[in-house]
Amino acid sequence: MWGAVTVPLEIDWFFQDVSAHGWIHIATIPVFTGVIGFLINWTGLIMLFSPVRFHGVTIPGFKQLARVLPRKLQEVPGFLQGGVGWQGIVPARAAKMGSIAVDKAIAKLGTPGEFYQQLEPDKIAEHIVQVFEPDMPRMIEDIMEREHPNLWRDLPVPARKAIIARVQAQMPTVVHGITGEIGVHIDQLLDPKIMVIDHFEANPALVVRIFRDFGQKELNLMVAFGFIFGFILGIPVAMIDHWFGLWWLLPILGIIVGWVTNALGMWLIFEPPEPKRILGIRFHGLFLRRQDEAAEVYAQIIADDVITLERIGDFLLDGPRGDRTRQMLATAMRPAIDQAAGPVRGAVRIAIGTKKFDSIRDAVANEAVDRTITPFRDPEFSKRQADKIRTLVSARTKELPPRDFVDMMRSAIKEDEWMLYAHGAIMGFAGGVIHLLLFGVGGK
Q1: Range of the domain at 177
Q2: How high is the pLDDT of residue 11?
Q3: Residue 3, in any domain of the structure
Q4: How many Cα atoms sit within 13 Å of 420 on the Cβ side?
Q5: Is residue 60 in a domain?
Q6: What b/e string do you get for 148-166 counting C-beta neighbours within 10 Å, with b at 16 or more?
Q7: What is the pLDDT of residues 189-199, one digit of tens each?
Q8: Cα Rg of the chain, angstroms
Q9: Both 225 and 343 in a single domain?
């Protein structure tokens, strides 16, 4: 009974005390912290995603100075390059996000062999034959005229046509053998991690699009919650400021409110990965609630822009293991070229010499490798095959444990989130100072 009487008496005292010193000062604090919370999360999203490329100025000597700064400050975009400015945290960490995306998710979505099989090697072979075959006569003539013009000129036209016809007749078998050979060695020839990291680093806007395309609704909600969190946190701040009446208290409390508001916003999006009930209220990370929908968007981006037949072709020939690919394919082509010479192979080898014969064969094989892989780079064909990759990535992304899905999206920026929190703290401090200048010291 005593407790039931005491609380109303304390509340009544507080109301009398507040009325004596003015309601405006108290009431405006939660409104201020709510507006500041909204602005913190709104500008925080801008910091997270914009600009896509670094904007700033280079200061002479700052690059050397930055190397002795604390490690956290070295992480600020541009500092280690001697620049003062800003680049969105997500695009600035595009390569790192690509690396983590591979480790946490893409490596679990499928092996290089699985991705390659989804692209249907038999259809790739048919497409190569279709594209390559019309160019075969011209290619053989060009090589022969370059490598041994006298031999080619002395050959009767029917003999030339017979050689070309033999090569064309063997093309489907040879190409199917080549695409099969690529499939057997794809794990050694193709490195999805390097492919993804290079592409993300060269196209940071793509990483931003991954977040934006399936998370814009949640990001907007995070901004709205900034006001709610700020307003709620402003209520105890108003009471403390009123009771103690110290001029420095509101700016200091503003720092705490700003930091906590941003931290709560990030937590709202990513945590908890599994649904949890706290005091009967269900909590679940906003991104995680739509993992299946996010998986479809993510898979579409990966299939359209990252792991495509076109980019696989580029990586196979021009990537770090391109020399190995060319050597392997040329080796696979040489027996077919030997056979194309037919029954006159021995005579030709004797007539022009083994060394010259081998150089012609190698020239044909090496040029054929480039032309064989060229159809991989056909954008239209690559786009048609992308649906198979999209289906695989979508299915596997939906199966990812929620924690792995969170890590895929958050790990690359998690260690940089302190910048967002610090930004919130600075804005909270500024809000406290502005309120102090407008309304004076609490409790006065």
Answers
A1: 105-201+301-403
A2: 46
A3: no
A4: 28
A5: yes
A6: beebbeebeeeebebbbeb
A7: 777 777 778 88
A8: 33
A9: no
H or E element that contains 262: helix 249-270
| Co-location of 434 and 422 in the same domain | yes
Asked whether the beta carbons of 209 and 203 are under 8 A apart, the reply is: no
Domain for residue 444, yes or no?
Answer: no
Which residue's entry shows tokens 């102090």?
Answer: 436
Tell me the H-state helices in 22-61: 23-49
Residue 98 CB partners (closer than 8 Å, separation 6+): 193, 196, 197, 198, 199, 200, 201, 207
Q: Are residues 208 and 195 in the same domain?
A: no
Domains of the chain: total? 2
Are both 225 and 358 inside the same structural domain? no
Same domain, 208 and 276: yes
Residue in the block written with tokens 């080549």: 178
Measuring CA to CA, which residue among 30, 91, 143, 121 is closest to residue 385?
121
pLDDT tens-digit series, residues 149-170: 777 777 778 877 777 777 777 7
Same-domain check for residues 85 and 223: yes
What is the per-residue DSSP string for 388-443?
HHHHHHHHHHHHS-HHHHHHHHHHHHHTTHHHHHHHHHHHHHHHHHHHHHHH-STT
Same domain as 39, residue 70: yes
Look at residue 175 in the predicted model and tell me its pLDDT: 74
Q: Is the pLDDT of residue 344 over 60?
A: no
Q: Based on the fold, state whether residues 118 and 92 are members of the same structural domain.
A: no
**Which residues touch 297 (CB under 8 Å, ≥6 apart)?**
210, 213, 214
On whether residue 430 sits in a domain, the answer given is yes
Per mean pLDDT, which range of 7-11, 30-34, 123-127 is the poorest?
7-11
Segment holding 204, helix H or strand E = helix 204-244
